[in-house]
Design goal:
Layout: H1 2-15, H2 23-27, H3 30-43, H4 47-52, H5 54-62, H6 66-77, H7 98-110, H8 119-158, H9 164-167, H10 175-181, H11 185-191, H12 197-217, H13 223-227, E1 234-239, E2 242-250, E3 258-263, H14 265-283, H15 325-329, H16 341-350, H17 373-386, H18 391-398, H19 403-409, H20 427-448, E4 454-455, H21 457-467, H22 474-482, E5 489-491, E6 494-496, E7 519-522, H23 523-538, H24 545-568
Antiparallel strand pairs: 1-2, 2-3, 4-7, 5-6, 6-7
Helix pairs in contact: 6-7, 8-12, 8-14, 12-14, 18-19, 20-22, 23-24
Protein name: Integrase
GO molecular function: DNA binding
GO biological process, one term: DNA recombination
């Protein structure tokens, strides 16, 4: 039994493809192995017999609480990322255990979703983090000069005997005097750091945590994605006279892959501050050569060798800083924002079916119970509410695997406060105001006044109305668009009139528009899509699954065009 469990763990740690787990994650697997071992002991079977048997595995998992069941399932699914020749045993297909999967779906649906941060508190956090990064960005170079002198003098003092360090230390070695020399008193006051060696290390960790917080706020990254960024991950490029900011990294959910996140100047500056600090720390390590691209964005301060001995470096790997949110957030006073009646009222608008008053952590007068994942949820909610970000763009920003997950994060956005509409001088407010008007003009000019015959469910309705000489009142049409009773978006095949977020194309290609009740199909656009689809097939391997899928889509498009031509009297 023990030998089998050892083989499982060995394959899990060493043979699994993808990112390396942290030690704390692996140490938590003891309870999972214990569950498997106890079941095998009770039913007098071996670990290999358990893993290959759907019946035994299902019985084992169904005896657990849903939360524990989820952890065991995740452990077993990890072996899908182990090559067959390295798997210690044969595994049954755990995804086919329907009873267990149904239980987990119900469990997840009944979990309380991460709450969004109420608008007043959210804006307070954004203003504070923006102010912090501005102060740090303006003073980071002088701060690192200060750190270089501190490190140099600390190394000199360490060479003295223990008693001499305190008796014969010159005044120029006094930390408070060095702080005054570089005019950095306000930085120590601003971050509440003591003017001693431990206070300096505390200050560096606080700065790194503040930078990681800024990255999470202005990208929507998961905490592990932000923690494991590499140095120089920030990218800036110029287009149409504007600066655009990108952060390059890797996703941490399921299929780990390279990814890009759009950010703003604050998020980009946070990466610059962190990279300068981390490079400084690494450069203080004696006799250590490194490749810059292999360094983490957030390096542990222990590598400075101040207060305690620098950790041993194995295989030239520098470990990222362990910036625990619970510990670090306690140090930031501006994170303590009291909950008011206004905040609870906003939460009720967003999710009226959740008993907010029954949850003591949301009591009025208490500090908002901030968790960094709430920034991700809030970004999804308020970005969706603004109308400035499409569902697909939001999905790409949050690095979700499916549109359904993005919709889940955005749930309640229709009732949330619009954070950009109050600033009438902001471009977004002007964009929102004119968006309905431009949609209405497109609808009138491209659809109602079009000479082309329209197909699709909505296209036929419009054709019938025009044939019946229903007059086109441009002013009334604009009014209906402003009221939200009409909507129009141009598509590859014509147009779409849905008033809600499109969920048709999240699971299929654009052929889903052909049967959608909100679709308007135009012949010229349909022909262009068929031409593009034909060219695509010429570049795809005829024996691949992609070819068969795309070929089927082409056949559906051509079939629709034939029906179109026959009904309109045109010859193909």
């Amino acid at each position: 039994m023990i030998s089998s469990l050892k083989k499982l763990i060995f394959a899990y740690i060493w043979y699994r493809n993808g990112k390396t787990y942290q030690v704390k994650n692996i140490s938590n697997l003891g309870s999972t192995l214990n569950i498997l071992a106890r079941y095998c002991t009770e039913f007098n079977i071996t670990i290999p017999e358990l893993l290959i048997s759907k019946q035994h595995l299902n019985n084992c998992l169904m005896s657990l609480k849903p939360g524990t069941m989820y952890d065991v399932r995740r452990f077993l699914l990890a072996f899908n990322d182990v090559d067959n020749e390295n798997k210690p045993f044969e595994f049954c297909d755990i995804k086919k255990l329907t009873e267990m999967n149904t239980t987990l779906i119900n469990y997840r649906n009944n979990l309380k979703q991460f709450p969004p941060i109420p608008p007043r508190i959210y804006l307070s956090y954004i203003n504070s983090i923006t102010s912090d990064i501005k102060v740090l960005f303006e003073n980071i170079d002088i701060f690192l000069q200060f750190m270089l002198e501190i490190k140099s003098k600390y190394d000199e003092i360490c060479k003295l005997s223990h008693n001499s360090r305190y008796i014969h230390t010159p005044t120029e070695y006094n930390i408070s005097n060095i702080i005054k020399k570089y005019n950095l008193e306000f930085i120590f006051d601003y971050f509440g750091a003591n003017t001693n060696i431990k206070g300096i290390l505390y200050l560096i960790n606080s700065i790194l945590f503040r930078c990681r917080l800024a990255i999470q706020v202005f990208t929507g990254m998961r905490i592990d994605e932000a923690t494991n960024l590499h140095i120089h991950c920030g990218q800036i490029y110029h287009k149409n006279g504007q600066n655009h900011y990108i952060i390059n990294g890797r996703t941490t959910k399921l299929s780990e892959r390279e990814a890009k996140w759009v950010t703003n100047e604050v998020g980009y500056n946070a990466t610059c501050i962190s990279s300068k600090i981390s490079l400084f720390i690494v450069n203080q390590i004696e006799d250590f050569s490194y490749e810059v691209h292999n360094l983490p964005l957030f390096v542990r301060t222990s590598y400075l060798g101040i207060v305690r001995i620098s950790p041993r470096i194995e295989n030239s790997i520098i470990l990222p800083a362990e910036l625990a949110p619970k510990d670090e957030m306690k140090k930031i006073s501006w994170l303590n924002v009291m909950i008011t009646k206004e905040d609870i009222a906003e939460l009720k608008k967003i999710d009226p079916f959740r008993a907010w008053e029954a949850e003591s952590k949301f009591d009025i007068g208490q500090y908002w119970p901030l968790q960094t994942h709430q920034f991700r949820r809030s970004l999804a909610l308020y970005a969706s509410r603004s109308g400035l970000v499409s569902l697909t763009s939001l999905r790409r920003q949050l690095q979700h695997l499916s549109t359904q997950m993005t919709l889940y994060y955005s749930r309640g956005s229709a009732f949330a406060q619009d954070l950009v509409s109050n600033d009438k001088s902001h471009f977004a407010a002007e964009y929102q105001e004119i968006q309905n008007y431009t949609q209405a003009l497109d609808y009138v000019n491209l659809i109602l006044l079009s000479d082309n015959k329209l197909f699709g469910t909505q296209g036929r309705i419009i054709e019938n109305n025009i044939k019946n000489n229903i007059s086109i009142d441009k002013k009334e049409t604009v009014r209906l668009f402003k009221l939200g009773q009409l909507a129009y978006t141009e598509t590859c095949l014509g147009g779409c009139t849905t008033l809600e977020v499109c969920t048709q194309r999240s699971t299929r290609s654009l052929v889903s528009c052909l049967s959608c009740e909100n679709a308007i199909i135009k012949k010229d656009k349909l022909e262009l899509v068929i031409q593009a689809q034909t060219k695509l097939l010429e570049k795809v391997d005829v024996n691949s699954l992609t070819y068969r899928t795309e070929k089927q889509d082409l056949q559906l498009l051509e079939k629709y065009l034939n029906v179109y031509n026959s009904k309109s009297g045109d010859v193909k």
